[in-house]
Please model this.
Amino acid sequence: MPLCRITLPVGEISSNTTILYDSETRDSVIFDAGGDIPKIAHEIQKEHLNVKHIYYTHGHYDHVDLSGQLQEVCGCEVSIHEADMFLYELSPKMKKSRGFSIPSCPLPKISTHKEGEKVIVGEYEGKIILTPGHSPGSCCFSFDHLLIAGDTLFKNGFGRTDLPGGSMEQIFASLRKLCTILPESTVVVTGHGEETTIGAEKKTLGIF
Ligand SMILES: [Fe+2]
Model:
């Protein structure tokens, strides 16, 4: 059986949460969780998953909201790249500044992950690719012909670079890196909206 995936749009601005799991062992990891924790918890319970780790692709509030609630549900380690820790810590303030209500529980302490680290999902293995630009610590997570891209790469476009720590120069370098190292058939799970492929986005971006 292949590595299984559930992608759910959650929260006020429909950020994608992705759950990957090994269908034999039921071991699982989660990428981003920007709200609707009961909806995520329902999937975990329905599929009888053992969540081993929650990875944040970056620190914007729509990908890390209700972090405390999610940790309570999963009881596992949660991590972010250290260069985005300041955004994680700022996330309630950023959410409030956009007119949304913020959780009353304090933001829990989380750990950090790094470029090149392995991501283990039962019998499957992926790795972390640091892709700064949308934010300084944005990371993508690469598995066999599958990429969890956060807000670095979208269908027909890429992430904005006008938020704190963003850089147009860095995101172009990151996009070139992804398009160079990954096969064109790689399915890209984006941070918002539909999935795409590296091949399709190479054409959109004009990278050959
Ligand atoms: Fe973002």
